[in-house]
Amino acid sequence: MGRTKLRSDEWFARQDEVGVRHRSVLATLGFDPQYVAGKPVIGICNPASEFNNCEMGLRELVQMVKRGVAQAGGIPLEFPTMSLGGEFIKPSDLPYRNLVSMDIEETVRANPIDGIVMLSGCDKTTPAQLMAAASCDLPAIQLSAGPKSSCYWRGEEVSAATDMWRYWDDYRAGKLAKEEWRELEQCFSCSYGTCNEMGTASTMAILSEALGMMPSGTCSMPANDSRRRVAAEAVGRRIVEMVEDELRPSQIMTEEAFYNAIRVLSAIGGSTNAVIHLVAIAGRLGIRLSLNLFDEIAQSTPMIVNLKPSGQFLMEHFHQAGSLPAVAREIADLLNLDCLTVSGKTQREHIQTARCYDRRIIKPLDQPIFRSGALVVLKGNLAPSGAILKASAASERLLNHTGPAIVFDNYQDMLARIDSPDLDVSPESVLVMRNTGPRYVPGMPEWGAIPVPTKLLKQGVRDIVRISDSRMSGTSFGTVVLHVAPESAVGGPLAIVQTGDSVRLAVAERRLDLLITEEEMRTRLSAWSPPRSEHLRGYPRLYIEHVLQADEGCDFDFLRPMSKEAVRFVPPIVGKS
């Protein structure tokens, strides 16, 4: 049997002047041209940047990946992408998820690449790479940077972000001195790596493994753990085998695999942002995931992982307790275990020997942290296309609540007024913020966790119902309704809410309603005019003109195939440049 036909043969195996030129270029990289032909070229996508502390460890891991590729007889060639550091990129890193996915797809399309290793880390990097892998459909495998180490302040374990929000409220309420806050600042990011709660970065790494795109058991290894280095080398070897076997993302990320990922998202109490990302990744494969599907699966899935912000522990504890394999073993009857993974084995094979080593962190199915519906999809006249609430991180007393709206026209308006002593706010109020969705800002920033007004914090009130068309960090908590669709900037009902209107949140009924008559709703909407964007050129303009709404994953309309049959990666014509 002959060897697998390589895509890179179009560049290196040809015997014309184009082949000569390509092989001579490889010599400048230290590869002897006579030994290159017939060896798979592995593109290693490495977004490491000093602007992104989450992914700084990838500079080291990439060397192990290259070593593994070489051991298996491949040619490792590293390429960069824009780094999506969630902390520094303002106002939002979400728009650049789409840009990075395009960057990777076009880099792969235009270059002699047979297989891809995707090194990920921060929130949007992981889905961006999976979106690109889906569009390219060349053999691909992903490995994350891993979560930060745990840190301590005055004897108490401190997480990277969830505890920051908690202590920040204490500071605003006057319970912490300035000197104490300065001490705390040094504790939140005490090592490189991703946020160490069940935030978006950790959630998406786990879901990549649940989809079958990340090696089993690697999603939660701490960033500075030597086992992650060993895993990186193994990833390098494995991608060469995947090229030989022609194992592609479309064979792994099937409809059943996405159902598994949604099930896992519910079981781990994962980030609300994962809904947008899973919809976008699946969309690249022509698979439609409706918001109703997320709600149906969540309602029949207990949340069994006890991690912040919905629980008590951190990712390091999760890994020690058995990680995703232990969770999958616990919910095995709810999963399709015949789904294939990047190892070439099924999920069933990977969890056969899995065990839970700490029942404080991974609970038995009959003793869940949250019985069902950790994530809830709301509909109603205020969110005709849907909205998301992380019920597991909300206050039970507010899950069925009616109160008067206090409306902020945008984020700047909210910042200017939220702590004003003149703000007419009570614990019954519902804070509503509009013009923070995908198109207007643009990019749907993580502004949805509107701060509890200082006036209320000083009264001991730590939560209040908040509603917006934006997102929130996966590390955040509270009764926060997010992703209201359609967004206000395109004429969604959020645009016409007025201060003093009664708003009803009824989680048991899956409803979010503005309590005005249909006639009043029509009258207000007919008088509404869209806000004018300040972005008249460049990528922000492209984003505004082509981004889909939150319930459709916020991908670009022109990047989604209309059907599974329309998924096709068009190769370049290899000739003279």
Itemize the secondary structure elements and their pairings:
Blueprint: H1 9-12, H2 17-28, E1 41-45, H3 58-71, E2 75-79, H4 94-110, E3 115-120, H5 125-136, E4 140-144, E5 151-153, E6 156-158, H6 162-172, H7 178-188, H8 200-211, H9 226-245, H10 249-252, H11 255-268, H12 273-284, H13 291-299, H14 315-321, H15 323-330, H16 347-351, E7 375-378, E8 386-390, E9 400-408, H17 411-417, E10 430-433, H18 454-457, E11 465-468, E12 480-485, E13 502-506, E14 511-514, H19 518-527, H20 538-546
Helix pairs in contact: 3-9, 4-5, 5-12, 6-7, 8-11, 11-12
Q: Could you describe the 3D structure shown?
A:
The chain is an alpha/beta fold and 577 residues long. The protein has 3 domains: 39-149 and 191-351, Response regulator (Rossmann fold, 3-Layer(aba) Sandwich), CATH 3.40.50; 152-188, no CATH class; 375-527, Glucose Oxidase, domain 1, CATH 3.50.30. Helix content is 35%, strand content 12%. It has 20 helices and 14 strands. The strands form 3 sheets. The protein has an 8-stranded mixed β-sheet. Helix 3 (58-71) packs across helix 9 and helix 8 runs antiparallel to helix 11. The chain is globular, with a radius of gyration of 24 Å. The mean pLDDT is 93.
Q: On the 0-100 scale, what is the average pLDDT?
A: 93
Give the total of beta strands.
Answer: 14
CATH-defined superfamily of the largest domain: Response regulator
- Unreliable parts: none
Q: State the major sheet.
A: 8 strands, mixed
Q: What structural category characterises the helix and strand content?
A: alpha/beta
Q: Helicity range of the residues?
A: 25-40%
Number of domains: 3
**Which CATH class of the largest domain applies here?**
Alpha Beta
* Oligomeric assembly: single chain
CATH fold topology of the largest domain: Rossmann fold
